[in-house]
Write a structure and sequence with these properties.
Radius of gyration: 14 Å
Strand order of the largest sheet: 4-3-2-1-5-6
Largest sheet: 6 strands, parallel
CATH topology: Rossmann fold
CATH architecture: 3-Layer(aba) Sandwich
Oligomer: single chain
CATH class: Alpha Beta
Number of helices: 5
Order of helices and strands: EHEHEHEHEHE
Strand content: 15-25%
Distance between the termini: 37 Å
């Protein structure tokens, strides 16, 4: 079974969304045979990746950073999408953290990088805004020698 993980920004600018969605479909749609998708289901890239992976028939593995992860969702719609995607998951992995901290997010991200055959990064190429951010997970995956597919709309900037 091919295992593809995701890391990415929670905020995808509107002008980049169609490009990101198309590129995710291209990555996920070109694989034949069984596919496992690993995601923490954060708002933005994680949820978009998971929803598309499920459309392509992938088994979804949800990697939950902490016991209070749902409290970290600031948007009710994003929380509802998280819960809906989580219900459809084939497997759930929980990191051993009580609270959503940078350390918990980093642990979840590195777990995904360790566990996948390829990492997809919805990433603007800029440094992480905090520990456990997309740039750090990309750098970690690259130290492991994992193939990383970076997806971003040229010229698009995050808020």
């Amino acid at each position: 079974m091919k295992r593809i993980g995701v890391t990415g920004h929670r905020s995808i600018p509107g002008r980049a969304l169609a490009h990101v969605e198309s590129a995710l479909r291209a990555v996920l749609g070109r694989h034949e045979g069984p596919l496992e998708a690993l995601s923490s289901l954060a708002d933005g890239a994680d949820q978009l990746f998971a929803a598309i992976a499920l459309e392509y028939g992938a088994d979804l593995t949800v990697v939950i950073p902490s016991g209070d992860y749902e409290d970290a969702f600031e948007d009710a719609e994003a929380l509802a999408r998280y819960r809906g995607l989580k219900r459809r998951a084939a497997q759930e992995v929980r990191m051993d953290f009580a609270h959503s901290t940078d350390e918990a997010y980093y642990a979840a991200g590195t777990y995904i990088a360790d566990s996948c055959d390829r990492l997809v990064a919805v990433w603007d190429g800029l440094p992480a805004r905090g520990p456990g951010g997309t740039a750090e997970i990309v750098a970690y995956a690259r130290t492991l020698g994992k193939p990383v597919t970076v997806i971003w709309q040229a010229g698009a900037t995050r808020d």
